[in-house]
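Long-time lurker, first post. I've been practising inverse folding by hand and with some scripts of my own, and I keep getting stuck on stretches where the structure tokens seem ambiguous. Below is the full token string for one chain I'm working on. Before anyone asks, I'm not after the true native sequence, just a reasonable design that respects the backbone. If someone could post their per-position residues I'd love to compare against what I wrote down in my notebook.
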């Protein structure tokens, strides 16, 4: 058995003034889940692969006279395999238990959380909600990644419970790989900009689909003189995101309820437009619309940069199948098709010149205070800390 780093305990999660209060039992629940996920990713997952190589693939080859060529063929062939079924059922249970743990913690203190957010949100005019913004069907029709009520559902006036649940559980789901404030992606982008483009000093930054602001906060900190606008369609996320940012002492982000498909800013309003883990939750019709809007909103010489899970092109069908698990078992209806897109072509269709397009890999910045040992694999298929970053400079 290879030496693996244990996930950091949830007691190290980054707290702030709207983070839910917790007891030892909550830490124990999240620690159990982080370790279960770690076990599934590092111990059981290799055995699933062994079952594929030693049983399922040879049986497929015997029947068809060739190896499986697509992830769909691999998925159908693996569906009846016992070890895959065990791994998959445990993974799904772990997602459901994570939601129960987070919601159980949040709902028993929801009134106090709403009051804390209200107090912080009253401190300035950086939160702009708009009840006329409709949550698109692609973001509301299913409970994305088993999150009851999705991002947008409000149970009470000024509700923040969905956001507090999102914030407290992601550290366990990712095994702390994104840092105590779950901001490793935003930190990676800020670091990439500082290292690769030190002259680039955006004055206005737009982040689309900011959720609770995990990844826009480090960018706002990296560019403290910039005016940052973070939008989302879900009011509970924005209330919490604004309160969280202010609680963390970050005052240059304005949080607005708006739909990234059509925004009311003038052409060329932004120097930098970002998203993080956003596109796999956009429908096939919404994504091109949003990309065209980004092109319109970007100033000449501006940059758009997007952090996502790796695309499937050139990836072995088995690896694709494992990464595709979320599409079939974790309520991610756009995941599978999104990871097939030709992003260069989509960006070109949105107006970006082909020679201004780039694709690179960035690894979420690991918080060495809580994660002193670098993980051997660094990967937890589906929630990896290694992302594709694609984007373009506007001519
Ligand atoms: C996976 S989360 C993004 C995570 C976030 N960027 C981060 O760094 O933690 C997707 C978010 O996009 C929002 N969203 C979905 N459709 C949108 C749209 N058309 N315009 C703006 N936000 C949208 C959802 O409400 C949700 O908060």
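-- Answer (accepted) --
I ran through it position by position. Result:
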């Amino acid at each position: 058995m290879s030496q693996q780093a244990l996930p950091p305990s949830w007691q190290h999660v980054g707290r702030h003034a709207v983070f839910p209060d917790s007891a030892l039992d909550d830490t124990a629940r999240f620690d159990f889940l982080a370790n279960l996920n770690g076990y599934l990713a590092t111990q059981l997952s290799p055995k699933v692969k062994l079952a594929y190589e030693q049983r399922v693939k040879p049986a497929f080859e015997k029947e068809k006279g060739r190896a499986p060529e697509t992830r769909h063929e691999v998925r159908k062939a693996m569906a009846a395999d016992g070890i895959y079924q065990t791994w998959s059922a445990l993974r799904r249970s772990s997602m459901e238990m994570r939601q129960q743990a987070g919601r159980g913690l949040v709902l028993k203190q929801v009134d106090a959380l709403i009051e804390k957010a209200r107090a912080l949100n009253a401190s300035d005019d950086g939160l702009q909600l708009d009840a006329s913004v409709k949550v698109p069907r692609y973001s509301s029709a299913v409970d994305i990644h088993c999150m009851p009520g999705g991002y947008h559902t409000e149970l009470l006036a000024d509700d923040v419970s969905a956001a507090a649940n999102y914030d407290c559980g992601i550290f366990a789901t990712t095994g702390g790989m994104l840092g105590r404030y779950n901001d490793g992606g935003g930190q990676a982008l800020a670091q990439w900009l500082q290292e690769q483009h030190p002259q680039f000093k955006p004055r206005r930054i737009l982040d689309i689909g900011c959720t609770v602001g995990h990844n826009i906060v480090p960018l706002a900190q990296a560019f403290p003189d910039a005016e940052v606008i973070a939008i989302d369609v879900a009011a509970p996320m924005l209330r919490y995101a604004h309160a969280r940012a202010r609680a963390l002492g970050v005052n240059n982000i304005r949080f607005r309820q708006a739909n990234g498909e059509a925004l009311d800013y003038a052409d060329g309003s932004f120097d930098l437009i970002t998203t993080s883990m956003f596109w796999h939750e956009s429908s096939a019709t919404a994504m091109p619309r949003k990309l065209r809007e980004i092109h319109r909103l970007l100033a000449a010489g501006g940059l758009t940069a997007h952090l996502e899970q790796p695309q499937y092109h050139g990836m072995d069908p088995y690896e694709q199948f494992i990464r595709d698990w979320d599409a079939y078992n974790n309520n991610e209806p756009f995941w599978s098709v999104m990871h097939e897109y030709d992003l260069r072509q989509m960006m070109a269709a949105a107006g970006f010149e082909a020679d201004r397009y780039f694709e690179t890999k960035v690894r979420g910045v690991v918080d060495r205070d809580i994660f002193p040992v670098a993980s051997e694999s660094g990967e937890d298929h589906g929630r990896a800390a290694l992302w594709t970053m694609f984007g373009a400079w506007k001519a």
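A couple of notes from the structure itself: Residues 24-64 form the longest helix (41 residues). The CA atoms of residues 99 and 148 lie 8 Å apart. Happy to go over any region you disagree with.
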